[in-house]
Structure formats: structure tokens, C-alpha cells
């Protein structure tokens, strides 16, 4: 493709010098530039790509996209926003791959990863070749690639969609974070179905207020349905029990389908039973009802299953097919993952890293526990500071024993993060053990048969980020070691 053809994706720009070279790739990291690349200069939070333009040209870049002056020998295309241009160029360069398959996007504070895996299972059961993009990995068929972000930037995203198209993917599901929506990472992506799980506090470092956070998530719904030919319906799947859904309903041009337990909803769960084996309930949908016995514990997972069912329903998957798929799912790694042992203690590793998810997981564990509920909780560094006291409070209120520890302190002082947590607790007992390994060992050592130990916050993560160092750390491995060291059930 030559430069002028690539540039048809961004009809408004200023080019500083003549030239129409052949373009072999688009890159936004100068280290990946090779002969024939266009290099897009992105002004990031830690690095300004404009400063790498010269080096990119030395490495073979034949054109530069910039929003600030750069002095190089090849044509420079000036645009208002290189991030926005990148999404448009990427979608065009890769041939608008999302037009070739059915795409379901999921947004919401909690439950995206879980719901995306449920939807993937449903789509597979109905015979689709699937793709999945999310917190844990990007998956095409059975092949997975690790991800740095829940929703990658637009270039990686379109490249991945293009690979999906080539691999014959017929339906895909992806998590769409509020960061991604705000930064336009999904611009140029065509969703057929958008799912909303819930909205509670998180990420107030990035979005500043809950209103801004809600609006960012709303972009998934406000962009849905307006650019499609009327013969291809688009659907917004909204949680009737979350009041943000009313805002999203008002924003969208898509068909709206609601799910829920409390408010009147199009797809509703009734006769819910929560047991240690999971959940059992009946889903009522337009024209019928179907019983579901899921191995996923907790009321919040009933919501995730309903959301997945609703997405499958509007994607024309038969309810019977969905039932089989949903009942097959034993769990998602790091979400309510039990660490098996013969010491009579329930050890649960869970990815709860928000106040609401922590309350949910502890409330789920409580009725399943004969003895005490022990919670090990930390809060991430360089993340929303205002959730720290709330998470500490949730641990003290919903567990019998709360241990505060470290969870990816990143550039912050772990003691300062713990002090922020402590500020949320008034008149309740807790223990501070800064070293996460020691915290897990101590909790498991002192747990009695019948007790539950909830290790929250890291879930599937296999690292602890301290400063800039990424150390191997896996809650499940550490818990297993601690259980192996534990004497016959009593410390
Ligand atoms: C705050 C934030 O969103 N940061 C994202 C951002 O990083 P950044 O702005 O620091 O990037 P940068 O390092 O300054 O680089 C700027 C540009 O220069 C380029 N570069 C950089 C270095 C170099 O030597 N040469 C070069 O050309 C880079 O390729 C980039 O194009 O752009 C990076 C590349 O796309 C992202 O990986 C990174 O996510 C970081 C890892 C992150 O932690 N993001 C979090 C806050 C986030 O986005 N989370 C959401 C939600 C998670 C959830 O569900 O709760 C997510 O979707 O992951
Ligand atoms: N529907 C839900 N409502 C509230 N809490 C939930 C829900 N589903 C899962 N959780 C809790 O949130 C944690 C994270 O779940 P999951 O990974 O599915 O969410 P996510 O939205 O993908 O999170 P992230 O934004 O970090 O990617 C779970 O471990 C569980 O404790
Ligand atoms: N997607 C979330 C994950 C948080 C996980 C927790 N372990 C932490 O590091 O805070 C974030 O980046 O804020
Ligand atoms: Mg996720």
C-alpha cells in the first residue's frame, strides 16, 4: 500500500513534503521500525515518541505521523491527535477486520474477564471459531499470547483482529476498559454487541470522578449502532440492577436488552440457590425459561452468567446450547480459585481489587465457612488511592480477621500504601504484614480446620511489582507452599 492510500483513512492532515513511498508496516514504537514503516509519534505518559522520530527514520521509517514539529528527511504528516489518527490508520491498513466477524465488547468495573470467558464458551459451543482479548491474554482458537493491558492500544488491537480474520475467526469477545474507551483504543472497531456488567469505584486516579468514569464506559454504548446498515442490528446488553444502565440506554442507538435479578428485566434469574458447589437458578427469557447449575460461586457470578446468556441470546445461540456451555465452565483462573489441600482449610485466591468485588467475594465465602473468614488484602501502587481505605474497611467489616499486605506497590512506598489503607479503619482490629509471602504463610499457619483464607487482589497474576522490578510471585504457589508446611490442621 502506498502512503497516499494509507492516508485516505485520515482525510484531514498537513503533509510537509512531497513523497508517496510504499508502506510495509505501521509502528508506534520506534524500536520496532523497519524499512518501509510509517512511524506514529505518540506522546505517552512516560515517553514522547516525537523524540524518537529521527532514530525511526535511521531505522528505515519512510513517513512520520506527528502532532508536534519534527525535523526529519522523510514526509511528515501532521494531525491534531496522533492517537486518534493511529486508530483510524490501523483499522484501514488492516482492512477493517472487525467487519468480518461478530464482535462482542464488555465493559464494567468488575466481571469483564469472567463474562468474556463465559461468552467464549457459549460461542464455541455454538460452533464458532472464536477469538478473545482481555486481561489475561489474547486468544485465537486455542493459541494464547500474553497481554500487558486489558485492552491493547489500537495498533495492536487491529493487528490482532486481522490475525483473527486470517485464522477464520467467526465470533470474538473482548474486554473494553474505561482507559481504552477514553484513549480511543477501540476507535475503528465495530462491535455488534456491547455488554455492561456494573459500575462501582475504581480507577479514580485516571478518571478523577465517578461521573467521568461512568461517561468513559458509556462511550462503548454511545458509539454503538449509529454507523451500521439497518439490516445488521446492534445490541446493548445492560444490567437492569445498576443505575448507570439508564444513562447508557439513553446514550445508545442500539437495541437494548436488559438482564438482572431485582428490577424487571428482559432476561432474569429466579429461584436462585447459592451453595458451596456453585449456583443453581432459572433463567427466564422472552419465550421460555431454562434451569442452570453452574460451578461458579457467588451471586455476582449469577449476574455474569446472565450477561453472557443475554449476549448469546442476541447472537442467536440456542438456550440449550448456552446451558451446556455455561454448566461446563469450572471457573476462570484466579477468580474464586480454590487451592486444594487436606488441612480442612478453604484457601481461595481471588482477583478482587476494588471495594465492591472484595465485599462480594467475602460475602460469598461467609455462608460457606464454618469457622472464621481470614482476608489477606493489599492495594496496588500508582493506582486509585481513594479505594485503599474502602478496601481496608471492607476487609475488616466482612472478614473475622483482616491482614493488610502489599499488592504491586510499583513506584510507591509499601508502608505509605498500608497507611492509606489504615486510614479507613476505625475501631476494628487488623494485622499488617508488609511482605505478601509472609502474610500468606502466617494466615495459613494459624488457620483452623473450617476456616477460610481469602487471598485477594492478584488472582491469576504471577508477579509482584516492586519499584521497577517484576519479581515472580503467584498467590497459588505461595499458598501451596504454606499448606505443605502446615502441621496436621492445627498450628
Ligand atoms: C497509563 C496508561 O494507560 N499507560 C499506557 C500507555 O503507556 P505510556 O503512555 O506510558 O507509554 P510510553 O511508554 O510513554 O510510550 C509512548 C509512546 O512512545 C513509544 N515509545 C516508547 C519508548 C521508546 O523507547 N520508544 C517509543 O517509540 C511507545 O510505543 C508509545 O507509543 O501506553 C502503553 C502502550 O499502549 C500502555 O501499555 C500503557 O499501559 C500501562 C501499562 C498501564 O498500566 N495502563 C493501565 C492504567 C491501563 O490501561 N489499564 C486498563 C484497565 C485495566 C482494568 O481493566 O482495570 C487496561 O486496559 O489495561
Ligand atoms: N459481576 C461482578 N460483580 C462484582 N464483582 C465481581 C463480578 N464478577 C467478578 N467479580 C469480582 O471481581 C474480581 C475480578 O473479576 P474479573 O476479573 O472477571 O473482572 P474484570 O472486570 O475483568 O477486572 P479487571 O478490570 O481488573 O480486568 C473477581 O475476582 C471477583 O472478586
Ligand atoms: N487492571 C487493574 C488490575 C489491578 C490488580 C492489582 N493486583 C493491582 O496491581 O493493583 C489495574 O491495573 O488497576
Ligand atoms: Mg479483566
List keywords for this structure.
six-stranded mixed β-sheet; Udp-n-acetylmuramoylalanyl-d-glutamate--2,6- Diaminopimelate Ligase, Chain: A, domain 1; alpha/beta; binds 2,6-diaminopimelic acid; UDP-N-acetylmuramoyl-L-alanine:D-glutamate ligase; binds ligand UAG; 23% strand; binds magnesium ion; Protein-Tyrosine Phosphatase, Chain A
Task: Explain briefly what this protein structure is.
The chain is α/β, with parallel strands linked by helices and 491 residues long.
In words, what does this structure look like?
The chain has 491 residues and is α/β, with parallel strands linked by helices. The protein folds into 3 domains: 91 residues, MurE/MurF, N-terminal domain (Udp-n-acetylmuramoylalanyl-d-glutamate--2,6- Diaminopimelate Ligase, Chain: A, domain 1); 231 residues, UDP-N-acetylmuramoyl-L-alanine:D-glutamate ligase; 149 residues, Mur ligase, C-terminal domain (Protein-Tyrosine Phosphatase, Chain A). It is built from 16 helices and 24 strands. It has an 11-stranded mixed β-sheet with strand order 9-8-7-10-6-11-12-13-14-15-16, sandwiched between helices. The mean pLDDT is 95. The structure holds ligand UAG, adenosine-5'-triphosphate, 2,6-diaminopimelic acid and magnesium ion. The site of adenosine-5'-triphosphate (ATP) has 22 residues, from helix 4, helix 10 and helix 12. Pathway: Cell wall biogenesis; peptidoglycan biosynthesis. It catalyses: UDP-N-acetyl-alpha-D-muramoyl-L-alanyl-D-glutamate + meso-2,6-diaminopimelate + ATP = UDP-N-acetyl-alpha-D-muramoyl-L-alanyl-gamma-D-glutamyl-meso-2,6-diaminopimelate + ADP + phosphate + H(+). InterPro entries: Mur-like_cat_sf, Mur_ligase_C, Mur_ligase_C_dom_sf, Mur_ligase_cen, Mur_ligase_N, MurE/MurF_N, UDP-N-AcMur-Glu-dNH2Pim_ligase.
Amino acid at each position: 500500500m502506498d502512503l497516499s492510500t494509507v492516508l485516505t483513512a485520515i482525510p484531514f492532515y498537513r503533509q510537509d513534503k512531497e513523497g508517496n513511498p510504499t508502506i510495509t508496516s505501521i509502528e508506534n514504537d520506534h524500536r520496532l521500525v523497519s524499512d518501509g514503516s510509517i512511524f506514529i509519534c505518540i506522546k505517552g505518559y512516560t515517553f514522547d515518541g516525537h523524540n524518537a522520530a529521527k532514530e525511526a527514520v535511521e531505522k528505515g521509517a519512510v513517513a512520520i505521523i506527528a502532532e508536534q514539529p519534527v525535523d526529519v528527511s522523510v514526509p511528515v504528516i501532521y494531525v491534531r491527535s496522533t492517537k486518534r489518527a493511529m486508530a483510524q490508520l490501523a483499522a484501514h491498513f488492516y482492512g477493517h477486520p472487525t467487519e468480518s466477524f461478530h464482535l462482542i465488547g464488555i465493559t464494567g468495573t468488575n466481571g469483564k474477564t469472567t463474562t468474556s470467558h463465559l461468552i467464549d464458551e457459549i460461542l464455541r459451543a455454538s460452533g464458532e471459531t472464536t477469538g478473545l482479548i482481555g486481561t489475561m491474554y489474547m486468544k485465537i482458537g486455542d493459541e494464547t499470547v500474553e497481554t500487558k493491558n486489558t485492552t491493547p492500544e489500537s495498533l495492536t488491537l487491529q493487528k490482532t483482529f486481522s490475525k483473527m480474520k486470517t485464522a477464520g475467526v467467526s465470533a470474538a469477545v473482548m474486554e473494553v476498559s474505561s482507559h481504552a474507551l477514553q484513549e480511543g483504543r477501540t476507535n475503528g472497531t465495530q462491535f455488534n454487541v456491547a455488554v455492561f456488567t456494573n459500575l462501582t469505584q475504581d480507577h479514580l486516579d485516571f478518571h478523577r470522578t465517578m461521573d467521568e468514569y461512568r461517561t468513559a464506559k458509556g462511550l462503548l454504548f454511545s458509539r454503538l449502532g449509529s454507523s451500521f446498515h439497518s439490516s445488521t442490528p446492534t445490541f446493548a446488553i445492560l444490567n437492569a440492577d445498576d443505575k448507570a444502565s439508564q444513562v447508557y440506554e439513553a446514550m445508545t442507538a442500539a437495541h437494548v436488552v436488559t438482564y438482572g435479578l431485582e428490577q424487571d428485566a428482559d432476561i432474569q434469574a429466579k429461584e436462585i440457590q447459592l451453595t458451596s458447589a456453585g449456583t443453581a437458578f432459572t433463567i427466564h427469557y422472552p419465550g421460555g425459561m431454562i434451569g442452570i447449575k453452574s460451578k461458579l460461586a457467588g451471586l455476582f457470578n449469577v449476574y455474569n452468567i446472565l450477561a453472557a446468556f443475554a449476549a448469546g441470546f442476541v447472537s442467536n445461540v440456542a438456550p440449550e446450547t448456552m446451558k451446556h456451555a455455561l454448566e461446563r465452565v469450572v471457573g476462570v483462573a484466579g477468580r474464586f480459585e480454590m487451592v486444594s489441600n487436606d488441612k480442612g482449610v478453604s484457601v481461595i485466591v481471588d482477583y478482587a481489587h476494588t471495594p465492591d468485588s472484595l465485599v462480594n467475594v467475602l460475602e460469598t465465602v461467609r455462608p460457606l465457612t464454618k469457622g472464621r473468614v481470614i482476608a489477606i488484602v493489599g492495594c496496588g501502587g500508582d493506582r486509585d488511592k481513594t479505594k485503599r481505605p474502602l478496601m481496608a474497611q471492607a476487609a475488616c467489616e466482612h472478614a473475622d480477621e483482616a491482614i493488610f499486605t502489599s499488592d504491586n506497590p510499583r513506584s510507591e512506598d509499601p508502608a505509605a500504601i498500608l497507611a492509606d489503607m489504615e486510614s479507613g479503619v476505625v475501631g476494628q482490629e487488623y494485622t499488617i504484614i508488609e511482605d505478601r509471602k509472609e502474610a500468606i504463610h502466617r494466615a495459613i499457619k494459624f488457620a483452623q480446620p473450617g476456616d477460610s483464607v481469602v487471598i485477594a487482589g492478584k488472582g491469576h497474576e504471577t508477579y509482584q511489582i516492586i519499584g521497577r522490578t517484576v519479581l515472580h510471585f503467584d498467590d497459588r504457589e505461595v499458598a501451596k507452599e504454606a499448606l505443605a508446611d502446615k502441621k496436621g490442621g492445627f498450628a
